[in-house]
Design brief:
The structure is a single chain. This protein is of the alpha+beta class and about 160 residues long. It contains four helices and seven strands. Strands 2-4-5-7-6 form a five-stranded mixed beta barrel. Strand 3 and strand 4 form a beta hairpin. The chain is elongated and about 85 Å long. The N and C termini lie far apart (about 90 Å).
Length: about 160
């Protein structure tokens, strides 16, 4: 064996060094991704229709968005205390909200409420979003209504 072959066997080749650097970067990237997902886990808010909440057994206190249509004749207002029923025509959930509702909030219209489920099966909203014009329904609500077979195309003018 010559001296250069003996020296090459003792150290890493360029190919081995490159693979080690790539493997190290992959480990660092996986660790960073895991840390970001763990940190954001409590910040992510999922959208659910009333039938999704019944099917998935969403735990009480978990922040979620509830979307659907405000059921006709279900809105009860007592000062700033509001109670109404959200439906996707397959299931319903009673929503409690303290505060002023948007001006465009009406029965029979699309709504998205942010908040958490109560242990008794109700929903306490911290924020309520209503449609912004007569043709708008949030995309998530449209998808949920289409999935349940209750979607009707809006009438065009």
């Amino acid at each position: 064996m010559t001296m250069s072959q003996t020296a090459r066997k003792r150290g890493w080749s360029r190919k081995q060094k490159r693979l080690a650097v790539i493997a190290g970067l992959a480990v660092v990237l996986a660790l960073a991704t895991t840390l970001v997902l763990v940190a954001l886990r409590d910040q992510i808010v999922f959208f659910y229709a009333p039938s999704d909440i019944a099917a998935r057994h969403v735990p009480a206190g978990q922040p979620i968005r509830l979307g659907g249509l405000v059921e006709a004749d279900s809105w009860v207002r007592d000062g700033q205390n509001n109670t109404f029923v959200v439906t996707d025509n397959a299931s319903t959930i009673t929503v409690h909200y303290v505060g002023l509702l948007p001006d465009l909030f009406r029965e029979g219209q699309g709504v998205v409420a942010e908040g958490a489920m109560d242990p008794d099966g109700g929903f306490t909203a911290t924020n309520v979003l209503a449609k912004h014009d007569e043709n708008y329904i949030p995309k998530e609500v449209v998808d949920a209504l289409k999935a349940s077979g209750e979607w009707r195309e809006p009438a065009t003018k």
